[in-house]
């Protein structure tokens, strides 16, 4: 879950915040680049892609297969990262015209917080058998006895911690992004300040 937290919530915003506008402008010179930017600038599509990928890969059967097959696990991580980049594009795109407005951004992020919280709550309160791969996990480094008996971390507790990570820290990250949207709105030049001011009569 910590891996997914980084792949979906931390790395994509940082990548987009570090992406210069000039790079996007150069990419938009090409038809494919313009089409991709236009596609990613559709908030409903970006939101659906980001959240549906997160829910899809946490389906017990698919998640279990990803734990058993390295290639599928690599695909899981790659698609989660790419979908998260698409999700965060309308919020942190270097091109201001591609960003969603202030109110839209708040609704966008708050609804994503709700969707990820629901998934986190399901995982937190589900029985440990939800993800059978973690009942008897592979232990190539021989640390499982330490985890289970020294740290007293049972499969049920492990799953609850994973669900809580998706539930609470994710919402704090969404809240941080909402504050960023507010900050950007407050920092924007006031339209009234750019209007010619009436002369004061002497």
Instruction: State the end-to-end CA separation.
Output: 68 Å
What is the number of E strands? 0
Shape: elongated
Structural Rg: 21 Å
- Summing up helix and strand content along with how strands pair, one would put the structural category as mainly alpha
User: Mean of the pLDDT scores?
Assistant: 87
Q: Helix amount, in percent?
A: over 70%
- Which blocks of ≥5 consecutive residues have pLDDT under 50? 191-202
How much of the sequence lies in strands comes to: under 5%
* Major pleated sheet: none
By DSSP (H or I, 4+ residues per run), the number of helices equals 10
Number of domains: 1
What's the order of the H and E elements?
HHHHHHHHHH
Question: Describe it for me?
Answer:
Helices cover 73% and strands 0% of the residues. The protein has one domain (2-187). The longest helix has 33 residues, at 155-187. Mean pLDDT is 87; it is low at 191-202. The protein contains 10 helices and no strands.
Top keywords for this entry?
disordered C terminus, 10 helices, mainly alpha, 202 residues
Briefly summarize what is shown.
The chain is mostly helical and 202 residues long.
Write the layout of secondary structure elements.
Elements: H1 2-17, H2 21-27, H3 31-40, H4 43-57, H5 60-68, H6 70-92, H7 102-125, H8 144-150, H9 155-187, H10 191-194
Helix pairs in contact: 1-6, 1-9, 4-6, 4-7, 5-6, 7-9
């Amino acid at each position: 879950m910590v891996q997914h937290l980084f792949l979906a919530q931390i790395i994509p915003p940082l990548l987009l915040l570090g992406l210069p506008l000039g790079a996007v402008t150069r990419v938009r010179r090409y038809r494919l680049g313009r089409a991709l930017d236009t596609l990613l600038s559709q908030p409903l599509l970006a939101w659906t892609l980001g959240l549906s990928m997160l829910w899809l890969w946490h389906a017990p059967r698919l998640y279990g297969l990803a734990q058993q097959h390295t290639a599928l696990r690599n695909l899981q991580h790659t698609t989660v990262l790419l979908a998260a980049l698409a999700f965060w594009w309308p919020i942190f795109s270097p091109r201001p015209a591609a960003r969603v407005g202030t109110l839209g951004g708040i609704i966008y992020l708050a609804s994503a917080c709700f969707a990820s919280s629901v998934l986190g709550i399901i995982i937190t309160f589900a029985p440990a058998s939800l993800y059978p791969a973690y009942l008897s996990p592979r232990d190539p480094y021989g640390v499982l006895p330490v985890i289970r008996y020294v740290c007293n971390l049972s499969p049920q507790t492990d799953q609850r911690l994973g669900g809580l990570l998706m539930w609470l820290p994710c919402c704090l990250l969404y809240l941080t992004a909402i504050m960023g949207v507010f900050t950007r709105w407050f920092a924007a030049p006031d339209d009234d300040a750019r209007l010619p001011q009436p002369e004061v009569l002497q």
